[in-house]
Amino acid sequence: MRISPLALAAGLLLTGGGAHAQPVTPAPDVLDAPVAPVAPPTLQPSRTLQPQPGGEAARRQPIILSADRIEGRPDRDASAEGDVQFRRAGVAIRADRLNYDMADDFAVARGKVRIRTEGNVYSGNELQLHVQRFEGFFLQPEFEFERLGAGGRAERVEFIDSARSRAYNAQYTSCPRDGPDEPDWLLKADRVLLDFDTNEGVAEGAVLRFLGVPILALPTLSFPLTDDRKSGWLPPFLNIDSRSGVELSVPYYWNIAPNRDATLVPRVLTRRGLGLQGEFRYLEPGFSGSLGVDLIPNDRVADRSRQAFQWEHQGELGYGVRYSGDAAGVSDDDWWKDFPGAPRSLSPRLLAQRIGIERPFDMPGGSGLAYARINQWQVLQGGASQISSPYQRSPQIGLRLDGRQGSGFEGTLESEANQFTLPSGQRDDGRLTGWRWHALGAISHRWRQPGVWVVPRLALQAVSYWLDEPMADGRRDASRVIPTFSVDSGLEFERETEGFGRALRQTLEPRLQYVNTPYRRQSGLPNFDSAGKDFNFSSIFSENAFSGVDRVSDSHQITAGVTTRLLDAATGLEALRLGLVQRYLLREQLVTAQSDGTVDGAPLEQRFSDVLLLGGTNVLPGWALDAALQYSADTSRPVRSVLSARYSPGPFRTIGATYRLARGLSEQIEVGWQWPIWGGSEPTPAAQAAASGVGAATPGRNSPCSGRWYSVGRLSYNMLDTRITGSLLGFEYDAGCWIGRVVAEQLSTGRNESTTRLLMQLELVGLSRIGSNPLKVLKDNIPGYRLLRDEPRRSPDTPLYD
Predict the structure, then answer these.
(1) Residues 745 and 772 sit within 8 Å (Cβ to Cβ)
(2) What is the rounded average pLDDT for all residues in the chain?
(3) Rg (the chain; Cα; Å)
(4) End-to-end CA distance of the chain, in Å?
(5) Helix (H, G, I), strand (E, B) or coil at 337
(6) Which one, of 772, 698, 692, lies nearest residue 736 by Cα?
């Protein structure tokens, strides 16, 4: 759950429940056994105590009292001194001295008093408590929250009952508190009232201090006490970029109902003015979804109002019918440059608007799916940088059938009708529009025996067009039917071996595929969705050299390849992988892709294709090496290659480099790293767990990696253009109880323009994160990057805009 920077005000402070003890089970009587001295009962230590029994069962629980000296009157009172341990009805108390009045069920403990409950520890000078009602007070208590690795102290804690408590002059931190100096960060509150029945805490006079400087203060603050959602302010965000200047936003979370919530984010952008972001989420029995908006009523830089939205929705109509929709849109073409990252999109310049309905169904020997969809796009062109828009499908209606027989036969059938249009405002580039119907059917039989498999397959593709404009030959309609026959086969060999100091299993997996597709002239037909496939280890074994429906490559070819792997015999993990594959044409191929991946290239007469080589290994400790190479025998040099190496000798230490070459098109080097550069010793696993708030005996008192600096970054360099196309550089400072991050990112938005962002974050371990969030940027851009602390579980009150 995301907690506001003051959302503690010890919401994490002083849980007011009783301690719970393990029940004592007396040993059964053994009548015939010789009588032996009976040892006095002893308390069994328990760090995790069972829930407190209630009602009549609680009143019947015995009193267990142990101490160096005990005096008392039966059924009236008792006094104990010296290492006192007291338990009753799930309440466990340790002290130097304790007096207990049985009639009032009232205990007074003094001198090193200590209570442990549900992983939380309280200790102080004096405790007065009505045990059964858990009503009383604790003077000068200190507390530790082991799960959070944090704690603090208060002048006085009043236990109103088992669900409510009140603390006065409370302090909370995850930093060491044993020395005379103030902790690096400290949350103070004049008074904190906790009510677990209503899941609400209220702090009065809350102040957050960092390095002795107050950075946040609120006269009154309410916050949730559990992972349940609660309305309230969330931590502020601070963003800096070269286009909008400094941005300050303070989100407000509104828990409307158990199945609905909203987040409102008022923003101030120094260059552009005021703005508002918002997200509304809903979860109903038959549907769910979310709606996000981003408004800037008066952008001073653009001199106009600007907006963006993002919507997602899915639901069921009954009888197995499902529907869904998602859409994103912005007010202008420059949005993707000025506000990178929002709204969410795989391609910031192509914003999809989709809606669809479908119904899966079962049939004898298989399953099927009927569907209808509408797919449209908003294309952001952005000045001289123009892109070609994909076709819109409005509508797209289809049916898919999959059938399997126990004898090994498999059959598939796909039939679909589409109307292809271009987005409004798309420049006239001569592309055709209109309707297309296609049917793709295939039948195959899988024959498999130990060490060998064979799959013959027969496929048929039929397509018809009805166009809005005439083709080059004057026709407005056309049809074609193309069959394909293929046989795919392979062998699998294994042997046990040894190497690199361990037992290994080596595999040898040769594969042979034959494909025959007759030639059909297609150059005059429209092309709505076909493009040449990338030439790699996966596509070389595909029957068609094109994606989509509009182009089918004529093929009469054999593809042969072999892969060998070394597997760890104990774990099954892959230690080494090597592969080689090449295609041989039995006749020239007339329907081909051009060098840029588009269709209708020159006929392919080269009988032997380029050789593809693949390799990868992690046999060297800390190293991971991968390589993919396309080698041309005609030119005796690589055509394309991807080489990468990563060295990760331990936690928070990783550096990797990747070299990419597409001869004549691009040549690029990428380097990414996370590495300690200065500071204290590396944290041990136990210390790291303590700093993350997991299982520390005295969390917060021993900083696991105090004062350690880390460098993080990623650089992409285009060797053909001799320029940096993307860069990320930052530093992280781990002080044990807090972490500071500063990350600068440069995003290329054109050949001669870019957007620079500065992300700064202060993470107070055990409390919250304040500022802009660079963690997603680091994880997405640096292979092997690890968080210095475990990231909090994302809960429904986490806002969309972080």
Answers:
(1) no
(2) 82
(3) 35
(4) 14
(5) helix
(6) 692
Q: Where are the alpha helices (DSSP H) in 672-785?
A: 685-691, 775-781
Q: What is the pLDDT of residue 798?
A: 37
Which single residue is written with the structure tokens 């700064």? 760
Query: Are 280 and 264 a contacting pair, CB within 8 Å?
Result: no
pLDDT tens string 683-731:
544 444 444 443 333 333 334 445 899 999 999 999 988 888 889 999 9
What are the φ/ψ torsions at residue 296 (nearest 5 degrees)? -130, 95
Q: Do the beta carbons of residue 14 and residue 151 sit within 8 Å?
A: no
Please state the domain extents for the chain. Answer: 75-228, 248-381, 432-619, 634-802
Phi-psi region of 320 (alpha: psi -120 to 50; beta: other; left: phi over 0): left
Give Cβ neighbours of residue 102 (< 8 Å, ≥ 6 apart).
63, 75, 76, 77, 78
Which element (helix H / strand E) includes 452? strand 452-467
Cβ atoms of residues 609 and 569 within 8 Å: no
Residue 21 has pLDDT above 70, yes or no: no
Domain 75-228 has CATH 3.40.50.720: no
Question: pLDDT tens digits, residue range 477-495?
Answer: 999 999 999 999 999 999 9
Residue length, the chain?
802
Query: 446 vs 110, 225, 562, 677, CA distance in Å?
Result: 80, 58, 20, 56
Kindly report the backbone phi and psi dihedral angles of residue 466, in degrees, each rounded to the nearest multiple of 5, phi listed first: -135, 110
CA 231 to chain centre: 25
What is the amino acid identity at position 216? Answer: L
Alpha-carbon distance 767 to 174, whole Å? 8
Query: Whole-model pTM?
Result: 0.76
- Per residue in 659-675, pLDDT (tens digit) is 999 988 889 999 999 99
